[in-house]
Amino acid sequence: MNETEPALRRARLSVAYDGSHFHGFADNDGVRTVAGVLSEALSRIARMPVEITGAGRTDAGVHAWDQVVSCDLPRDLDLDGLARRLTKLCVPGIVVRSVEWCSDPEFNARFSARWRQYRYTVLNDPIADPFLTPTVWHVSAPLDLSLMHLGCDPLVGEHDFSAFCRKPKLSPDQIERGDPGPSLVRRVTSAVWTEHRSDHGARILRFEIRANAFCHQMVRSIVGCLVDVGLGRISAGEVSGILRRGERTGTVAPPQGLTLWEVGYADPVSSGS
Question: Which of the residues are catalytic?
Answer without folding.
Answer: 59
